[in-house]
Amino acid sequence: MSNKLLRGTLVLTLGTYISRILGMIYVIPFFALIGEDGGALYQYGYAQYAVFLGIATLGFPQAVSKFVSKYNSIGDYATSRKMFRVGISVMFGTGVIAFAILYFLAPFFAESALGQKELGNTTVDDAVLVIRMVSLALIVVPIMSLIRGFFQGHQSMGPTAVSQVIEQIVRIAFLLIAAYLVLRVFNGSLVTAVGYATFAAFVGAIGGLLVLFIYWQRRKHTLEAMRENLVPVSDITTGGMFKELFSYAGPFVFVGLAIPLYNYVDTNTFNRAMTSAGFADISANIFSIVTLYLPKLVMIPVSLATAFGLTLVPTITRSFVDKNMPLLNRQIDQAFQIIIFLVLPAVVGLAVLAEPAYMLFYNDNPAGAELLRWFAPVAILFSFFTVTAAVLQGINKQKLAVISLAFGLIIKMAVNAPLIVMFQGLGSIMATAIGFGASIIYSFAMIHRHAKYSFRLLFKRTVFIGILTAFMAMIVSVSQSVLSIFIDYSDGKIPSTIILIISIGLGAGAYLYIAYRSHLLEKLFGNRFSFLNRKRKAAE
Fold first, then answer.
1. Looking at the record's lineage, which domain of life comes first (predicted)?
2. Quick check: 194 and 35 in contact, CB under 8 A?
3. Whose CA, among 44, 71, 292, 389, lies 20 to 30 Å from 328?
4. In which domain, by residue range, is 69 found?
5. What region does 236 belong to: left with phi over 0, alpha with psi -120 to 50, or beta?
6. Which has more pLDDT, 134 or 240?
7. What is the pLDDT, as a whole number, of residue 219?
8. Nearest Cα to 229, choosing from 72, 338, 352, 379?
9. pTM
10. Do the domain assignments include residue 42?
């Protein structure tokens, strides 16, 4: 990998994580402003928006990046520019169509989400306002995403990274300031505050688009220098161009929509099921916890582990093309083991520390903490689904990744309502776990069949990592118990922070130390972090 590409990948990864960390942290003041009721109303709008955004973009941004990179590599810059012009037109068109559908059918989506005309203090008109406010972002975000893909196709990752961070900062700043002004300064309604909070997606997208425009102006001379083709212009027709583009884009559309689609199922079944079970009075609160607040706590370790695993996918593709099955098996092993090594202790630790963690981010809510304890392990399934789907794409089995998602989603839809009726919020978590679990089992079977992958080493390493995790969990639990003698997490966010920092520090330190002494770190990351090898040799 060239230094330029390596540096660009690092910049893009850094920008993505800064954006996600900001997306996790802002929920602390946001929850303080709008609570569970506001969170439910926010999610009624945002769940619809996330699905429509995925459909509107059609996987084009990632596909355009691959398309541009391919044709630039052979010196056919004219075809790359043609794709960019056509792509912008398509993204504008699909964005406007998605906006129109979501805006004008908002009453239908709102009633479907509430399950009735009114739920608690929320009416259909309230949900309609929120859905329509967020729908405006669909006009801008697809175009912004495509421009990012175009820059990435030129191996220029800085514009995407910076625009992601600026978009997130602008969105969060507008969201928090607007909600604060409406509720605390002007004594406005919660519905108005949440409406402006969802409208922040549009404002943030404008900020991200302005950043990309500035980059475009600065790098315009570099892009224009590529006008002279090094090879004859490809005779690919517009139809052929779209055929090739959709072959790249298809898997991105479905796999990228996995979590939004699962949330969408909850959005349209949760309240109806809770009401039929006689829990209408607490339905909105539990819904916001399960679909908005809990996922924020688990997505950081999931994203970190997934990033490590996905960096192996290009090498997996190369090994598959070269028919080097032994190397392919080792690379798949490494990707899966990294997921287990990073996510398993994170989710177990989060489950053990559920009470102070929930208190730090939200409030002292035993029900929320208990749901967090159950939700945390689902993070492992999120991670494995993403990486197994990427591996299937790496071995040229994209259709199987789509079948995997569809299989799990059908199961989620089938069991969601019955489980919610029986177990309320926990039922939704169980249905999600069953759906993702089924998808992963199917993906594992397909990887075994088409890549001749053996699970023997993965099983052995999983048992060993499980033992390390159990030891870590014991340290974390003992630490929390001892600290609770002197500090009560329910006293506020500062006591919760102290408990979390000390407990996590001791547990993580012990886990990493044993992993290092047992050479597990070296086996998993040695090729990437060469200092581990040097330290071990020096010690010997």
1. Bacteria
2. no
3. 71
4. 1-232
5. beta
6. 134
7. 76
8. 72
9. 0.87
10. yes
